[in-house]
Amino acid sequence: MKLLKEKVINEGIVLSDQVLKVDSFLNHQMDPILMKEVGREFVRRFEGEDINRVLTIESSGIAPGIMTALELEAPLIFARKQKSLTLRDDIFVEKVYSFTKQESNEITVAKKFMKPGDRVLIIDDFLANGEAAFGLARIVEQAGAEVVGIGIVIEKAFQPGGRLLQEKGYRVESLVRIASLENGQVTFADEEDGI
Ligand code: G4P
């Protein structure tokens, strides 16, 4: 996706070989024009899939998630993160480990918002190790609903999340794929990402 690639090139800050800072358009300040295009692109890629729910995780997944949901005219649900929690009957709970933050969160979704038969598109801002996406997929499956696919704004293709999700049979659509952040440089995985 050309606009997104340009944003990454012009505004992304390579913090280390592992981490790209994109707080000027995705993780802190958010660019609504870009997010609108992101939503449109996900809907284009998953056209014909009869999606009736979009699922993401707070907080940075909400902007691309709501724009996708708006385009689909379907509700967006964002999983909430909580450190500890008294188990209750009316929520789905999954554990998600963050390698970046080296901590586990429990993520929760109210059962009333996801039902058997729902066709769910999972959206997230970053894909690294895939922990968040797997946690969201497990929640969809707990609900007896179906994961139609996983839409990612920025995939770090040098980390294993994308491969692991595809090996489990999930369709993953990443709008840009980064092959490397070595030497302070962003290298994209392939030029076909550009539209
Ligand atoms: P994973 O879910 O794919 O396994 O990723 P990981 O645990 O490594 O990532 C944890 C958090 O860090 C996630 O956000 C993820 O989006 C973010 N993240 C991972 N790699 C990068 C990166 O290179 N750059 C930036 N900017 N973020 C990255 P989160 O904790 O859920 O934060 P937020 O959604 O509340 O902003």
From TrEMBL:
Q: Which GO terms describe its molecular function?
A: xanthine phosphoribosyltransferase activity
Q: Sorted alphabetically, which Pfam families does this protein's record hold?
A: Pribosyltran (PF00156)
Q: Which reaction does it catalyse?
A: XMP + diphosphate = xanthine + 5-phospho-alpha-D-ribose 1-diphosphate
Which pathway features in its UniProt record? Answer: Purine metabolism; XMP biosynthesis via salvage pathway; XMP from xanthine: step 1/1
The UniProt entry, under Gene3D superfamilies, shows: 3.40.50.2020
Q: Report the EC code(s) recorded for this entry.
A: 2.4.2.22
> Which example biological process does GO assign this protein?
XMP salvage
**An annotated GO cellular component:** cytoplasm
Q: Where in the cell is it found?
A: Cytoplasm
Q: Which residues bind 5-phospho-alpha-D-ribose 1-diphosphate?
A: 128-132
- The residues that hold xanthine are 20, 27, 156
Q: Does the keyword Transferase apply?
A: yes
**Xref: SUPFAM superfamilies:** PRTase-like
Record domain Phosphoribosyltransferase: where: 53-157
Q: Which UniProt keywords apply?
A: Cytoplasm, Glycosyltransferase, Purine salvage, Transferase
> Which InterPro entries does the record associate with it?
PRTase-like, PRTase_dom, Pur/Pyrimidine_PRTase, Xanthine_PRibTrfase
Functional description taken from the UniProt entry: Converts the preformed base xanthine, a product of nucleic acid breakdown, to xanthosine 5'-monophosphate (XMP), so it can be reused for RNA or DNA synthesis.
Q: Which NCBIfam families match?
A: PRK09219.1, XPRTase
The subunit structure is:
Homodimer.
For this chain, the family text in UniProt reads:
Belongs to the purine/pyrimidine phosphoribosyltransferase family. Xpt subfamily.
Annotated protein name in UniProt: Xanthine phosphoribosyltransferase
